[in-house]
Amino acid sequence: MHEMSLALAVRDLIEEAAEREKFAKVKCVRAEIGALSGVEREAFAFCFDLAMKDSVADGARLEIVATAGGGRCPACGRETPLTMIYDACAHCGAFPVEVTAGKDMRILELEVE
Amino acid sequence: MCTTCGCGHDEMKIEGVSVHAHEHIHADGTRHSHAHDHRGPHGHGDDHDHTHEHPGQEHHGHAQAAAQGVEQARLVRLEQAILAKNDRFAAANRARFAEAGVLALNLVSSPGAGKTSLLVKTIEKMRGRRPLAVIEGDQETRLDAERIRATGAPAIQINTGKGCHLDAHAVGHALDELPLSRGMVLFIENVGNLVCPAAFDLGEAAKVVILSVTEGEDKPFKYPDMFRAAKLMLINKVDLLPFVDFDVAAALSAARRVNPFLETIQISAKTGVGFEAWLSWIEKGAVAVGG
Ligand SMILES: Nc1nc2c(ncn2[C@@H]2O[C@H](COP(=O)(O)OP(=O)(O)OP(=O)(O)O)[C@@H](O)[C@H]2O)c(=O)[nH]1
Ligand SMILES: [Mg+2]
Ligand SMILES: [Zn+2]
Ligand SMILES: [Zn+2]
C-alpha cells in the first residue's frame, strides 16, 4: 500500500503543477524510481492508474526510469554497484558502503497539453 | 481534499474525526466542535485559531503559456521528489520539536512486536521524571490510545484507514491537539509495518525499531531500509527466550550488517528487564535536544 501513498503523492504534485503551469491534460508522466528505493515498480504502475482517476493525469502513460543502485566505499574510495543497501564493496569487501545512487523517487517531467 | 495544505487523504482520522472536520478531541479525551476556516493555514493552537503553518510550497518548472487558443503539447520539467510534500511537513514538525525542546521518537515494528506494551511500561517507569505524550497510529481502532490514556499520559490517536504508515502531515495535525512542553518526550507509535514507515519522515529525532523474539532473526535482511534508518533496536519479549528458537547473536549480527551504527538493547515489556538501559538512552536524547 506504500505504492498507493506514493501514487497519491504524485497526483498531488501533478495537480499543483497544473495550477501553476496552466495545463489541463497530462499525456505522459516520467518518473525515476531507484532500484534501492524499496518501491515495487509493478505495484506502483498499478496504483498510478488508479490514483490518477479524475485528475488532469487520468489515463496518462507512466514511464519509469529505473536508476541502478550504487555507492562509494569509504574504505577504498571506489564506486561500487549495490543491489541491496547492505552489500559489501565489490572491490575490497568492506561495508557499509555509502549509498549514492538508486534511492531516489522523483517525478522528472510531464508531457502536457 | 484540503486545498489549504493539499492533503488528499480524506480517510485519515484523528480521534475518529477526519483530519479536516469541525470536531476536535483533546489529549485527555474531551471533545468539542468549532468552525474550521479553510482559507488560512490551518492548525489548532490553544485558542483554536488556526495558527500552525503548513510549510510553503516550492516552485519548480517554468510556465510557458501555450499560444493563445492552440492546444499544444509541451514538456514540464518537475524534478521533484515524490515525497517532497511529506518532507516539508516533516521539516516543519522537526522545527516545532526543536523550538519546544521536545524529544520525538518514532517507534516502528511488525504488528504485535510490543510497541504499546513497551510504551505503557515506559510511561509507568518515567512518571514524574519528564512530561510525556504519545501519538498513536493505527489503521482502524482507538484501542492503543486508550491503553496509553489509562496510564494518565496524554495520547492522540491517528487512524490511517487503509494507509499503512503515519505521515508527517497527520502528525502535524495531531501536534495541534497536544500541548508540547520543554523537556517532554513524545513517543509516536507508528502503524505495525516495517516497510512504509521507513520512507515517511515524521520529523522525529530518531526511529526506534522493535524486533521481538517471536519473529525471525533475519528481519533486518528482509526490511533493510527500516533497520538502516533506525538509531536504536529494541529486542523485545526476551522473557520468552527460553521457549523459542530465536538466536539473539544472529539477530544482532544481521542488524549490524545492515546498520553498523545501530545501538541495541534487549528488553522485556512484561518483566521490565532492560528498562534501565532504555530509559537512560531516552534521557540522553532528551538532554541532547535541550530539554
Ligand atoms: N511475553 C511477552 N509478551 C509481550 C511483551 N511485549 C508485548 N507482549 C505481548 O505481545 C502482544 C502484542 O503487544 P502490543 O504491545 O499490543 O504490540 P504492538 O506492537 O503495539 O501491536 P500493534 O500496535 O498491533 O502493531 C500482547 O499480547 C502483549 O501482551 C513482552 O515483553 N513479553
Ligand atoms: Mg500497538
Ligand atoms: Zn572498497
Ligand atoms: Zn490539511
Please characterize this protein's 3D structure.
- The complex is a heterodimer of chains A (113) and B (291).
- Chain A has 113 residues and is of the alpha+beta class.
- Chain A has a single domain (2-112), classed as hypothetical protein PF0899 fold (2-Layer Sandwich).
- Helices cover 27% and strands 27% of the residues of chain A.
- Chain A is built from two helices and six strands; from the N terminus they run H-E-H-E-E-E-E-E.
- In chain A, the strands form two sheets. In chain A, strands 2-1-6 form a three-stranded mixed sheet, covered by helices on one side. Chain A has a three-stranded antiparallel sheet with strand order 4-3-5, with no helix packed on it.
- In chain A, a hairpin with a 6-residue loop joins strand 3 and strand 4.
- The two termini of chain A are 31 Å apart.
- The model of chain A has no long low-confidence stretch (mean pLDDT 95).
- With 291 residues, chain B is of the alpha/beta class.
- Chain B has a domain at 88-288: Rossmann fold, CATH 3.40.50.
- Helices cover 27% and strands 20% of the residues of chain B.
- Chain B is built from eight helices and twelve strands.
- Chain B has helices spanning 84-100, 115-126, 143-149, 168-176, 219-222, 224-229, 248-258, 275-288; strands spanning 13-14, 17-18, 23-25, 31-33, 74-81, 103-109, 132-138, 155-159, 185-189, 206-212, 232-236, 263-266.
- A nine-stranded mixed sheet of chain B has the order 2-1-8-7-9-6-10-11-12, sandwiched between helices. Chain B has a two-stranded antiparallel sheet with strand order 3-4.
- In chain B, a hairpin with a 5-residue loop joins strand 3 and strand 4 (31-33).
- The radius of gyration of chain B is 21 Å and the shape is globular.
- Strand 6 of chain A pairs antiparallel with strand 5 of chain B, so a sheet runs across the interface.
- The structure holds guanosine-5'-triphosphate, magnesium ion and zinc ion (2 copies).
- One zinc ion is lined by residues 2, 5, 7, 19-20, 42 of chain B.
